[in-house]
Design goal:
With 218 residues, the chain is of the alpha/beta class. The protein folds into two domains: 134 residues, 3-Layer(aba) Sandwich (Rossmann fold), CATH 3.40.50; 52 residues, no CATH class. Helix content is 46%, strand content 14%. The chain contains ten helices and seven strands. The strands form three sheets. Strands 3-4-5 form a three-stranded parallel beta sheet. Strands 1-2 form a two-stranded antiparallel ribbon. It has a two-stranded antiparallel sheet with strand order 6-7. Strand 4, helix 6 and strand 5 form a beta-alpha-beta unit. Helix 3 packs across helix 4, helix 4 packs across helix 5 and helix 9 packs antiparallel against helix 10. The chain starts with 9 loop residues before the first strand and ends with a helix. 22% of the residues are buried.
């Protein structure tokens, strides 16, 4: 793990620069994580039910997986997975299904904040769209804040209310999503947007020309 060298970050009022585990332990249940590769984030020797129930057992919400089974089944339905998948192992699910199960686990403790690190980058485009729609629906229904980390500005445009663009470890631009997408100020943001594919061939040629001009200015 990379040690903090400078700066300040507070999470739920706790300063993270130099934080001690005992000072942050009580806040962990308020944060859910969805990782880039759901396959490697699950224990392959545990069933989906056991993996989803794990944070509930760790934080002593339930004494055992058997006790948590009814709630885990509700979580599975919430992310649009059949209950019969509970007794399957991670390798028996598709990438999209594993990511839905990962989302169920992340929401098991009803967190205030969900951190999603490139959660759709390993999925096919059609599966990506379905998972992103699920993110949007659950955020509205449950009301959690979401920090969505991605290189795909098409995903950002679909999900984000506010955008923060980082380049070489520095925040180069931040603001309302519509403002950043429609009127980017920083050259790096402009290049990111110009590199996005669009279905209109004429608009695509204009974007490529814009990207070429921006690269020439470097």
């Amino acid at each position: 793990m990379q040690k903090v060298s400078d700066g300040s970050l507070k999470v739920f009022g706790v300063e993270m620069n130099g934080v001690k585990e005992r000072d942050f332990k009580s806040k962990r249940a308020d944060i859910g994580f969805v990782f880039q590769d759901p396959g490697s984030s699950f224990d392959p020797l545990m069933t989906i039910a056991e993996n989803v129930a794990e944070p509930l057992i760790v934080h002593k919400k339930y004494a055992s997986v058997a006790d948590a089974r009814k709630y885990v089944a509700e979580l599975m339905e919430m992310v649009q997975l059949p209950r019969v998948y509970m007794d399957r192992f991670p390798h028996e699910l598709s990438g999209g299904q594993r990511q839905r199960a990962s989302l169920a686990r992340a929401l098991a403790l009803k967190p205030s904040l969900l951190i999603a690190d490139e959660p759709t980058s390993a999925l096919d485009v059609s599966v990506q769209a379905k998972v992103l729609e699920l993110f949007k629906r659950l955020q509205v229904e449950i009301g959690f804040a979401c920090l969505f980390i991605t290189h795909d500005l098409a995903v950002v445009d679909m999900l984000a209310d506010r955008i923060m663009v980082m380049h070489k470890g520095q925040i180069v631009e931040h603001g309302d999503a519509s403002q950043i997408i429609e009127h980017p100020q920083d050259a790096y943001t402009q290049k990111l947007l110009a590199s996005l594919p669009v279905p209109d061939p004429r608009q695509q040629r204009e974007r490529r020309a814009q990207l070429h001009r921006l690269r020439e200015q470097e």
